[in-house]
Amino acid sequence: MKIGIDKIGFYTPHIYVDMNKLAVARNVEPEKFTIGIGQDKMAVPPITQDSVTLGANAALEIIDQADKEAIDFVIFGTETGIDHSKSGAVYIHHLLGLKPNARCVEVKHACYGATAGIQMAKGHVALNPESKVLVIGSDIARYGLNTGGESTQGAGAVALLISANPRIMTLENNSVSLTADIMDFWRPLYSDKALVDGKFSNEQYISFFQKVWEKYKEETGMDLEDFEAMCYHLPYTKMGLKAMRTVLEDASEEVQERLKEHYRVSTLYNRNVGNIYTGSLYLSLLSLLELNDDIKAGSRIGMFSYGSGAVGEFFSGILEENYKEHLLVKEHKDLFESRKEVTVEEYEQIFEKTLPTDGSNIELDINEDSATICLSGLTDDMRQYVNKMR
Asked: Which parts of the sequence belong to the Hydroxymethylglutaryl-coenzyme A synthase C-terminal domain (predicted)?
C-alpha cells in the first residue's frame, strides 16, 4: 500500500522585513545576509498570530469536507507551543471544524517535530487505510533584536495531509535516524527566545547529515545518482548547501549540477520567509515541487530533517503522476505577492509587542491581520481564537 503526502498547505504572516534594510540598520554588509546566509526577506508575525493560528491557516487551504470526515488524527509539530499542558492540535481541531472522534497531539523535538509526526502518521494509516492524518509543522523563530541569530528568524507553517494512495508523493519505508545528547540550540522554559551555539550547531548539522547519509547508502545500496533532488531542513538557505557539498564529489559532474540546481529552486520560498523550524524542510520541499519546471513523476526526492539537541533523519519519497495538479501554486504565489513590507523600526515595534504574563486580560485588534484565523486576545489566562469564516 502506498502511503504519503496527499496535499500540502502553507501559510506565512502578511508582513515582512527586507534583509538588505535590516543589514544596513545593524551596520552589517547586506551581502552577509543575502549571500552569506542566503536570506532576502524575513516574515514578521504580528501579535495576532502564534504557532496555532499559523498552523490552522496553513491547514485551512487544503482541508475540504471529505477530508474533515476522514481525518482521525491531528499531529502538531512545534517548538513554540503556547501551553505547557494543552496541545495546540486541539485548538486547530476546533478551528478547522474536524469531527470529534479524532486523536490530537503535540509533538516536540526542536525542528524535527513534523518529521516525527509524519512517521507516526504513516504507521497510523498503515493500520487504518481509510484514515487521513493532518500533520502540521508551525513555528516562530525568535532570537531577539540585535542578536547573532536575528537574521535567521521567521514565521510560518506547513500542513501535510498523509493518506493511502497519495496524489503528490509516496513516502518510501527506508529511513535512517541518529540521536545524540548535545547542546547546540535550546530554549529554557523561562525564555521566549532561543539560545544557540551557532558554530557548533552548524558542525553538528553537517556531521549528522554525513552519518545518516552514509548509513542510508549502506542499507539501501542507493547513491546520489538515484535522487533527482535533495531537500534539507533550512534554518537559513545556505545551511543545506554546506551539507550537500560534503558529499557531492562522490557523484558525476552531471549529477552534481542537477542536484545543485534543484537545491537552488528548493530554497526560493525559504529565502523569502526565514526559519520556520519544524516546517522548514517541508517549505523547501514545497518550493521545489511548485517552482521546478522539469522534475517528472517517478522521481525520487531525498529529505534530511534535523532537530537540534539532536535528532537527524534521512528519508525519501517518489513523486506521483500529475503531482503538479494537486499543488496550490497560484494560491502561494498570491500569498507572497500580497504581503506588505514593514520598516525596520516597525518590525522592532511589532517584535516587542508580547502577550501579558501576569494574568491580565487583553483584547487584540484583528482587523489589521488579513489571516482568516487569528488570536483575538487573552481572557482569564485563556487564549481566544477567531475563525473569520464562521
From this structure: 180-252, 255-353
> CA 136 to CA 9: how far, in whole Å?
9
Do the Cβ atoms of 306 and 319 come closer than 8 Å?
A: no
The amino acid at 27: N
Active-site position among 14, 79, 106, 172:
79
276-332 residue pLDDT tens: 999 999 999 999 999 999 999 999 999 999 999 999 999 999 999 999 999 999 999
390 pLDDT higher than 90: no
Query: How confident is the model at residue 198, as a pLDDT?
Result: 93
Domains 3-168+327-387 and 170-323 share a fold: yes
Please indicate whether residue 233 is annotated as part of the active site: yes
pLDDT of residue 224: 98
Can 79 be counted among the known catalytic residues?
A: yes
Whole-prediction pTM: 0.98
Contact indicator for 177, 313 with CB cutoff of 8 Å = yes
Beta-strand runs (E) in the chain: 3-11, 15-18, 41-43, 71-77, 103-107, 132-141, 154-164, 169-179, 185-186, 195-196, 229-232, 300-307, 311-319, 340-341, 362-363, 373-379, 382-387
Q: What's the pLDDT tens digit per position in 49-75?
A: 999 999 999 999 999 999 999 999 999
Exactly one of 93, 109, 233, 262 is catalytic; which is it? 233
Q: Where are the domains of the chain?
A: 3-168+327-387, 170-323
Distances, alpha carbon 30 to alpha carbons 19, 144, 202, 207, in Å: 7, 19, 21, 29
Q: Which three cell numbers stand for residue 217?
A: 547508502
Residue 354: predicted pLDDT: 95
The enclosing H or E element of 333 equals helix 329-337
Task: Give every CB contact of residue 225 below 8 A, 6+ residues apart in sequence.
Answer: 251, 252, 255
Write down the CATH superfamily of domain 3-168+327-387: Thiolase/Chalcone synthase (3.40.47.10)
pLDDT over 90 at 18, yes or no: yes
Question: Domain 170-323 classified CATH 3.40.47.10?
Answer: yes
Residues 28/205/313/324 CA torsion (nearest 10 deg)? 30
Cell readout for 385 is 481564537
The stretch 261-269 carries a mean pLDDT of 98
Q: Under 8 Å CB-to-CB from 226, ≥6 apart: which residues?
A: 300
| Active-site choice (93, 106, 111, 320) | 111
